[in-house]
Amino acid sequence: MAGRQSLHANGDGWAAGPGGARMWGRYGAAGLFLVASSDRGPMVLMQHRAAWTNFGDTWGIPGGARDLNETVEQAAVRETVEECAIDPEHIEVVGAEVTAGPFDAAAGLPGGWTYTTVIARSKDGKMLSTTANEESYELRWVLIEELEDLPLLTPFRQALPRIRQLIEPLI
User: DNA repair: is it a keyword of this entry (predicted)?
Assistant: First the structure.
């Protein structure tokens, strides 16, 4: 949390979702779908989430809670830097799409709670080196065509067909 805003502006915490579900991120959440090239085809950086995290022991993209005054792009990149130790100078954001929500009951947020998938690519097209923090069991570059072979976080699995449409111009 180093360098983040005051406790009030910090987005870490639960928000109310549909049917009383708890949604991580007081101001919503965002993740980074980071695409790179390999000789085997397009790859995406995936995170095997530690058991103690929200949706633990599943695979998803790096991401997390949005802070109060952050854009979704800023939140997704910040969370990826925190969780993967990637230099943000090597990331080019190319788009964003709400892939869960809006959930109107969410903590009184204008427009409701959302999860936004931010689409990005490595600037040189290559897979970036990563170092996992305590929120991950593992970080791995995975062929996009093999994503569904992993035990994916359920909302990510549900959003994957739409995400594939969005990234088609990149690959």
Answer: no
